[in-house]
């Protein structure tokens, strides 16, 4: 049967058809939908892990036991999972083991543009890269077979455009879930130095065998494909870049790589010998280009293209011509007068009032990864720094230690509840243990918000929305040694300001939990028919309510607020900001 599927949906289907038994992941755009789609297959043990390292270790354990297992993450999540990734390359597998990683060229929802192919090379793990939804399914299915055949974990590299594009997929009946026998083998699975030294030899021999097998069958082992057309120009490419090449240079001969590490150098040399000019088209790093040149094959690449962002078919076409509209693949004549669409926090977002309080306090705010990173933008303009998941706590502690405690009275860390569980807990323990005096604010909005409202250990539900144990944040913080814990409603912005100011004066680690559900989940939505209204006679047209930049409130021609009842979530932040009682919150 044929269906139109999202690339991520097709990966989930491929895993299901391959007989996957366990999938443990952490949500991260653009990879999230893979795990969300696997949920519909009831016989798969699927879960949201608290972070990518944990998800990888769960999958590794399932693989050693004999089940086919998978873990999914975005590119920065692979950094978190790198510790087990590099060592499982040595142990190998029992049941097939696949790491799905989705890169984000253009940084649509990420803090960097790292190229995950570098992880494949460094960890010595084969990596496949599909170019459309059909290949997403087939490559995933094949990856499990490949994993077991060569006793190796496999990386499947996705891309924002492949993950979030739709194309036709032919579905098949799933293979039965097979749990292989487990045989204790400490020499293979216990990576103490004496064993690891021997396993490294196995890894290097495995890589040689994969390269040899790819060459022996003319590329079929690596899912490579040669498309000979005009021999004046030959292009080597993979993944989403292949789609740009087919549209931008339709007459060129193409070597489309399926496995992007290790590379099939015999096949590449043969292809290069058949074309007059060889060009490598790849986004981000010159990964393939550098490897080809290192093997003595002449080619062009990044001298024609940019290291930055995504490519397009026009960029490929113009990079291979003399069109003055482009310079090294960067479009110079962007559409004029295109209105900007700045990111804003949602109407009723519980984070805004808290950040407005921090702005008024003029404190240094170490931020973190989540919706609340937008606290760096107007009108809050509160964040000073944001690096990676969980770093806010450590950075605040670093401020404190760098100044011998002088900055503890004017520095806070801000972290979401899901991010705190991901990688903030150990940082908080470290701050307590090393006698810091920081104030940490945990934004508890009862969900993993930024990636689309996934459950986490604090929500009381699992990935299938069944009841699950719910984390007691206050109890956890107490168990870590935090002696001062306060809970506030972030919409009560002036109360927040008062509480934070009091906590900053303390000479110990303190925690403020700003608790209110996300405005987009059922428990955070206003009741139907309840809204904020304006008593016009009291309004002084001061504009204070408009300065909070709520999407549900605009300032009209008469300088008075106009409230969109459909968008308004009745949170009451604008009411709290009004000094003249002109705005009235409806009774819930």
Keywords:
588 residues; alpha/beta; Rossmann fold; 4 domains; seven-stranded mixed sheet; six-stranded parallel sheet; 25 strands; 18% strand; globular
What does this structure look like?
This protein is α/β, with parallel strands linked by helices and 588 residues long. It has 4 domains: 2-216, Rossmann fold, CATH 3.40.50; 224-320, Rossmann fold; 351-524, Thiamin diphosphate (ThDP)-binding fold, Pyr/PP domains (Rossmann fold, 3-Layer(aba) Sandwich); 533-584, 2-Layer Sandwich (Alpha-Beta Plaits). The chain contains 20 helices and 25 strands. The chain has a 7-stranded mixed beta sheet with strand order 3-2-4-5-7-6-12. Strand 14 (326-327) and strand 15 form a beta hairpin. Helix 16 packs parallel to helix 17. The longest helix has 24 residues, at 193-216. It is globular, with a radius of gyration of 27 Å. The model has no long low-confidence stretch (mean pLDDT 92).
Proportion in β-strands: 15-25%
CATH architecture of the largest domain: 3-Layer(aba) Sandwich
Please count the helical segments: 20
Oligomer: single chain
Rg: 27 Å
Brief synopsis:
With 588 residues, the chain is of the alpha/beta class.
Question: SSE layout and pairings?
Answer:
Blueprint (H helix, E strand, L loop, with lengths): L1 E5 H11 L4 E4 L6 H7 L6 E4 L3 H14 L3 E6 H6 L1 H10 L5 E7 L13 H7 L3 E2 L4 H18 L3 E6 H4 L2 E5 L15 H4 L3 H24 L8 E3 L2 E9 H10 L3 E6 L1 E3 L3 H8 L5 E3 L6 H8 L18 H7 L6 E2 L2 E2 L19 H11 L2 E3 L16 E3 L5 H12 L8 E6 H17 L5 E6 L28 H7 L4 E5 L4 H12 L5 E6 L16 E3 L18 E3 L5 E3 L9 H5 L5 E3 L3
Parallel strand pairs: 2-3, 2-4, 4-5, 5-7, 6-7, 10-11, 10-13, 16-17, 16-18, 18-19, 19-21, 20-21
Antiparallel strand pairs: 1-8, 6-12, 9-11, 14-15, 22-25, 23-24
